[in-house]
């Protein structure tokens, strides 16, 4: 049933070079090329959730770091003082200009031969204008549009390297034992946002019983998001009002917090004295997975046969006949009651939410040094 | 427009302890508790995509590592030889038993006071029975069901710590410049699988023009997945046959590869002599984002007004009137032609796919030492 490491087939990677005590990295076989741009993510907040590659880029390779506004301060603190750090100052109405300025600055510095790190929060490729930057650096303008100096022929830059990171869309639920996928509660998950180009409201997805929905950049619009989700009709979501929702704030930071409730009670919860002031950045997780690991577990809402032969009720409910809808509601009702009980247990009778906050002390094991 | 690091507001994290040259970690303020279970992810493959926390768990904290079968060998190579390593031997029909065995072993070792690392591929909370393990370790059985020894009162274990990791669902597209979200091409993305409990086929999501769909664990069922997606009717997806799809194999490993084509040509591509043998593990990415960063960019399929006022065509198309459907098809047609041109450019006239493989040499900068 189990094999040991020595029984593994050989892997195609060459053996690593000898150890250095100063770094977990060997001396690189090819030093970094002049003008290299590295597009990296900071992870959700705790510096130990940086990838090793991103940590190396920040602490050993960068000559200049161009950071987005929401990059956690604890990550910025790791950057050695010899490295220039510039932080974008995005505010409503200014995002396009700040973005353009960062790209132009990165290009200018790379053309001087410096190693430029573009540092984004979370994973660099999730809602971060990653594509725009890749295209800009691939075919840069021959001169800055904001200057009047004549065009110069620049030698080509090395290809931009993008280093994936831990996205808060996945990490935040995990930090609070909310499984994005969970047998019996969620077979898929969707990452979306209500905020489109220019701040306009995007469509929200329809209810799928077997799906976890993660909503980024939506907490400031909680009321309209909930209204759209629970509404019925062509543009509304048809989500049941008793569906669990979690609002997770500052995931992986010392003051991280989750407020768990239902779609119909979450606004009340967020406005309560107990919850008090918001702690941005926040995100929403919606679906049965939110309560799946409460207590002894709450993972049978999909009601799958153990033999793997039965259809999921999620599928049957999508057929929309009245009988199946009723069966579906009855099963969801059991889970609703279980959830309400759990919320009351934590918060006192009559209160339909629960709040958890703070980082487990075990995370102290992973605090890391700066410089 | 930009502020410097020194102008930042103070952050609530205490300053890090003094530097150690042997490790990026300070001496931990609280040594790890006996019997601590750490549930961590390996990232997609390249060892530098481990988080710093996971690297520390493997190299400094673990007494025993219980690894899932697909954990990359290059990650296992980082584990010091003093640490016991056990690899689950899952095969079809045996997954439940292998899973149970790993959980029982973890519990047994933790009860001996050892630090147990449960190592999963990618992110620990994506399709990895994360929830089952959290519940099992939270309320463990007082004795192993597979032994006949009498029940013993065990002292409680420290709470299991789950450390988020980089999921291949997000990292694999990024490694090949495929943006999961991209203005003008994708405003949301969905992670799903066709494989349900007991191997049965799960429903596939319906076509949403503005959505990237990532399908994990589905390449072995490519034919039936494509058939379901492109079919019409109640259980089918209604995806246009010309929609771009990428099959990404062994992302971030030295022999990583992507095959990009359309839903109607992808099977042909995968069976071609040029592509040859598959390189598991693989995954699919489906949607306009697949071709969004080709050439100079291919990111206007959603046809949003620059003023942010216009409705997206994706929304209008969902209204399903014939006129809007035709308008939608006309725009998609432009992108189809642009994509076909790009595929022909790379692969010769008449061939409707393109293949890219290998890891950029810049990644050599991030090779890391074992021991």
UniProtKB/TrEMBL annotation, chains A, B:
Residues 37-266 form the Tetrapyrrole methylase domain. Transmembrane segments: none annotated. GO terms for molecular function: uroporphyrin-III C-methyltransferase activity. Keywords: Methylation, Methyltransferase, S-adenosyl-L-methionine, Transferase. Signal peptide: none annotated. Residues 1-26 are annotated as: Disordered. The lineage of its organism: Eukaryota, Fungi, Dikarya, Basidiomycota, Agaricomycotina. GO terms for biological process: methylation; siroheme biosynthetic process. Homodimer. It comes from the Eukaryota. This is Uroporphyrin-III C-methyltransferase. InterPro entries: 4pyrrol_Mease (IPR000878), 4pyrrol_Methylase_sf (IPR035996), 4pyrrole_Mease_sub1 (IPR014777), 4pyrrole_Mease_sub2 (IPR014776), CobA/CysG_C (IPR006366), Siro_Cobalamin_biosynth (IPR050161). Pfam families: TP_methylase. In the N-terminal section; belongs to the precorrin methyltransferase family.
């Amino acid at each position: 049933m189990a094999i040991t490491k020595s029984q593994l087939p050989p892997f195609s990677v060459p053996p690593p070079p000898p150890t250095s005590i100063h770094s977990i990295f060997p001396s690189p076989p090819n030093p970094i090329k002049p003008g290299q741009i590295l597009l990296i993510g900071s992870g959700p907040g705790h510096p130990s959730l940086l990838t090793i590659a991103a940590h190396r880029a920040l602490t050993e390779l960068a000559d200049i770091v161009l950071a987005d506004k929401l990059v956690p301060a604890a990550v910025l603190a790791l950057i050695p003082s010899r490295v220039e750090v510039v932080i974008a100052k995005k505010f409503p109405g200014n995002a396009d200009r700040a973005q353009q300025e960062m790209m132009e600055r990165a290009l200018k510095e790379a053309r001087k031969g410096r190693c430029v790190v573009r540092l984004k929060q979370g994973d660099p490729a999730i809602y971060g204008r990653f594509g725009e930057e890749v295209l800009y650096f691939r075919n840069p303008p021959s001169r800055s549009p904001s200057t009047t100096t004549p065009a110069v022929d620049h030698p080509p830059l090395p290809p931009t390297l993008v280093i994936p990171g831990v996205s808060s869309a996945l990490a935040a639920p995990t930090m609070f034992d909310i499984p994005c996928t969970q047998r019996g509660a969620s077979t898929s998950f969707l990452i979306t946002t209500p905020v489109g180009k220019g701040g306009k409201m995007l469509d929200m997805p329809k209810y799928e019983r077997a799906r976890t929905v993660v909503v980024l950049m939506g907490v400031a619009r909680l009321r309209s998001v909930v209204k759209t989700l629970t509404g019925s009709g062509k543009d509304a979501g048809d989500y049941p009002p008793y569906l669990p929702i979690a609002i997770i704030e500052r995931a992986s930071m010392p003051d991280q917090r989750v407020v768990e409730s239902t779609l119909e009670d979450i606004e009340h919860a967020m406005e309560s004295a107990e919850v008090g002031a918001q702690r941005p950045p926040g995100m929403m997780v919606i679906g049965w997975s939110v309560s799946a690991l409460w207590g002894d577990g709450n993972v049978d809402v999909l009601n799958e046969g153990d033999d793997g032969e039965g259809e999921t009720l999620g599928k049957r409910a999508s057929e929309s006949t009245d009988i199946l809808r009723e069966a579906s509601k009855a099963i969801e009702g059991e889970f609703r009651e279980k959830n309400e009980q759990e919320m009351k247990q934590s918060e006192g009778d009559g209160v339909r939410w629960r709040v958890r906050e703070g980082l487990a002390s075990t995370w102290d094991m992973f605090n890391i040094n700066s410089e």
